[in-house]
């Protein structure tokens, strides 16, 4: 549809939409001029929208049936707006789907590494406290426990079954003992950063593991229970995922329901079982 045909179509629309008793002669000259101005402005806007639509990538990729195009400018503009919104939301949905798929792929890559490091740390916890406490446990909580972790999420571990009876000095001493045993259990190139923070309400141990060196260290000891990841390739894995951050705290309670992090993780897990669609959201 060229501009001339479009203009004729528009004039036809104007003719059938005006009131039946409309007469230009009954209008003052000023009214006629104002009507003409509004007509021109509306026509220009609608024709520009039509041209923009027909020149869009969507129209280049899809055959347009000109016979099914709206025959009135108002309908044409409505159709153009609908098509634009449809293209926008379709592109947005595809972008979200691609991003979500990549997040899942990256998370799956390092899941085995997370769980393996958790098990190693659990054994260190048992070695540190089992001689004096019979019910020592190490639990993951937070996003890693619920399966909602993003690739860059850290791993939260709480040690339970060590009752300090509210004695802060004993609590801090336990943190220091565990920290020292952890540091002594890994090479510096594997445990690249470590810190104990004891001057807070909840003393905590913060660790960072280089996953590539962790894999190489296990391989050097003949242990091949982890999938190989080409950590040097940014196409294989996000550089952020080369390092795994771990936070460890100690809870005096023996009951996991009394630890807010564990309680929240259990609540989320139960809801994911009941409403599995929530995980993808």
Terminal CA distance reads 44 Å
Q: Let me know the largest β-sheet.
A: 5 strands, mixed
Strand coverage percent: 5-15%
Helix run count? 9
Element-level helix/strand string: HHHHEHEHEEHEHH
Total number of strands: 5
| Cα radius of gyration in angstroms | 33 Å
Overall 3D geometry? elongated
Unreliably modeled segments? 16-24, 60-71
Spatial order of the strands forming the largest sheet: 1-2-5-4-3
Amount of helix: 40-55%
Q: What is the averaged pLDDT score?
A: 76
What's the arrangement of secondary structure elements?
Elements: H1 3-17, H2 29-54, H3 57-61, H4 73-129, E1 137-141, H5 143-146, E2 155-160, H6 168-185, E3 191-197, E4 204-210, H7 211-220, E5 243-250, H8 260-274, H9 277-280
Parallel strand pairs: 2-5
Antiparallel strand pairs: 1-2, 3-4, 4-5
Structure keywords:
281 residues, alpha+beta, 5 strands
Structural commentary:
Helix 2 crosses helix 4 and helix 4 crosses helix 6. This protein has helices spanning 3-17, 29-54, 57-61, 73-129, 143-146, 168-185, 211-220, 260-274, 277-280; strands at residues 137-141, 155-160, 191-197, 204-210, 243-250. Residues 16-24 and 60-71 have low confidence and may be disordered. The protein has 281 residues and is an alpha+beta fold. The longest helix is centred in the middle third of the chain and has 57 residues, at 73-129. Strands 1-2-5-4-3 form a 5-stranded mixed beta sheet, sandwiched between helices. A hairpin with a 6-residue loop joins strand 3 (191-197) and strand 4 (204-210). The chain contains 9 helices and 5 strands; from the N terminus they run ααααβαβαββαβαα.
């Amino acid at each position: 549809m060229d501009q001339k045909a479009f203009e004729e179509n528009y004039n036809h629309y104007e003719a059938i939409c005006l009131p039946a008793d409309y007469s230009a002669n009954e209008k003052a000259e000023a009214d006629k001029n104002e009507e003409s101005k509004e007509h021109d402005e509306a026509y220009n806007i609608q024709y520009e929208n039509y041209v923009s639509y027909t020149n869009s990538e969507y129209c280049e990729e899809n055959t347009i049936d000109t016979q099914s195009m709206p025959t009135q400018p108002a309908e044409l503009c409505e159709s153009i707006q609908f098509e634009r919104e449809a293209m926008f939301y379709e592109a947005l949905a595809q972008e979200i789907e691609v991003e979500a798929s990549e997040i899942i792929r990256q998370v799956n890559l390092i899941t085995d590494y997370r769980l393996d490091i958790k098990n190693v740390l659990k054994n260190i916890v048992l070695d540190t406290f089992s001689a004096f406490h019979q019910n020592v446990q190490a639990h993951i909580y937070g996003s890693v426990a619920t399966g909602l972790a993003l690739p860059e999420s850290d791993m939260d571990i709480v040690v339970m079954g060590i009752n300090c009876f509210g004695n802060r000095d004993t609590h801090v001493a336990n943190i220091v003992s565990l920290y020292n045993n952890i540091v002594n259990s890994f090479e510096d190139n594997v445990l690249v950063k470590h810190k104990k923070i004891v001057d807070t309400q909840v003393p905590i141990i913060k660790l960072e593991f280089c996953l590539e060196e962790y894999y190489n260290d296990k391989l050097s000891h003949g242990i091949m229970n982890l999938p190989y990841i080409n950590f040097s390739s940014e196409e294989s894995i996000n550089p952020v995922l080369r390092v795994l951050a771990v936070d460890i705290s100690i809870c005096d309670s023996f009951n996991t329901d009394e630890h807010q992090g564990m309680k929240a993780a259990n609540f989320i897990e139960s809801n994911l079982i009941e409403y599995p669609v929530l995980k993808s959201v």
